[in-house]
Amino acid sequence: MTVEKQAPASESIMVVGGGISGLTTALEAAEVGYEVFLVEKNPYLGGRVAQLNQYFPKLCPPTCGLEINFRRIKDNPKIKVFTMADVEKVSGSPGNYEATIKLNPRYVNSNCTCCGECAKACQMEIANDFNFGMDRIKGAYLPHEMSFPARYVISSRIIGTEDAKRCKEACKYDAVDLDMEAKTVNLNVGSVVWATGWEPYDAHRIDNLGFGRHQNIITNMMMERLAAPNGPTQGKIIRPSDDKAPESVVFVQCAGSRDENHLPYCSYICCMASLKQATYIRAQYPDAKIYIFYIDLRAPGQRYEKFYNMIKQDENVFFIKGKVAEVSEDPDTKNITVVAENAVTGEKIHQTADMVVLATGMQPTAANAKLPADLKYNDDGFIINDYENGGMFASGCANKPADVVSSNQNATGMALKAIQTLVKR
């Protein structure tokens, strides 16, 4: 007796999240012939990788990996990209899902040439979220220099103001559309891959480490933006209080990670991020002293172990095994003193530095806002993949803490799982 295989109601795949995992998932599926809808909440693709100065394994700038992916997406008619889009609901079963997508207004249409005249005309400034609020941008802005799609955004905060009118009048290409409204799109897809990524843990919640109270305490992602050529200081690492070149920097590992009051798990890549950022400082300030306070150092894999060993050879980098208990600020110099107990010698250490960098943990986006679908989560907010039932899968850091290489490998696997869902039905 032969059994006929039932065709899925839809042979399309929806990928939610346009970071490195979402891009890889979408491209892997589309390049073997499947229709893919790529849904991203931001006005640009690239996710957290776009905010880095360099990333492992080759310490490349984001342009190195993202640029080719953007070209592949642009050239592939199988991929439909929705930016500034929120998934409001996903219902159905494997092979036949109904997804409701809300498209938020950009107030700039496809006529945009990125000439920048709207930004020149705009007078109001808003906090720059891409740089974690370390600088300000105009209310008409390009999110960053390699934004894809390459199109300006008019902030909703200036809609209805004279600034908005000035933006429209300045545009020679009729690209500014102040009458844009939110609209809803319904998609029928056979499988869904959630590549919703991660957020830096909110360092304000770690009371004893002083973030928000002391200006010269920053997070590791803020350091990435300081070191980036397109960052708030054009790549110059200077301390926030007075723009001074730092002569000493303390890195505080596991800031919020491996802590039952915050994130109980290890965020996998924070140790390597701090070692990488030590090279940023060293490149600009060869004589600066760098102090790394850690519980345990994690260098996952031979390549990372080699990198760690290289950093250990630097006579101006000091590793202290001890958990930082408190910080204080000198009101005159704005220098920061961290206090920790050396776990090896037992002595109490007071180390003063010009700047402190908190290696804040990696928290899944879904931990703060559950996704509008029937998904299972572990206690930390990471999505649990149900391979037996199939249909919906989590890719990259939506599933577990990971670096870029691991996220890409995982994303390729999730693309295959999504395809298998369509083939099996």
From TrEMBL:
<keyword id="KW-0004">4Fe-4S</keyword>
<keyword id="KW-0479">Metal-binding</keyword>
<dbReference type="GO" id="GO:0016491">
    <property type="term" value="F:oxidoreductase activity"/>
</dbReference>
<dbReference type="InterPro" id="IPR039650">
    <property type="entry name" value="HdrA-like"/>
</dbReference>
<dbReference type="InterPro" id="IPR036188">
    <property type="entry name" value="FAD/NAD-bd_sf"/>
</dbReference>
<keyword id="KW-0411">Iron-sulfur</keyword>
<dbReference type="Pfam" id="PF13450">
    <property type="entry name" value="NAD_binding_8"/>
</dbReference>
<dbReference type="GO" id="GO:0051539">
    <property type="term" value="F:4 iron, 4 sulfur cluster binding"/>
</dbReference>
<keyword id="KW-0560">Oxidoreductase</keyword>
<protein>
    <submittedName>
        <fullName>Quinone interacting membrane bound oxidoreductase, subunit A</fullName>
    </submittedName>
</protein>
<dbReference type="GO" id="GO:0046872">
    <property type="term" value="F:metal ion binding"/>
</dbReference>
<keyword id="KW-0408">Iron</keyword>
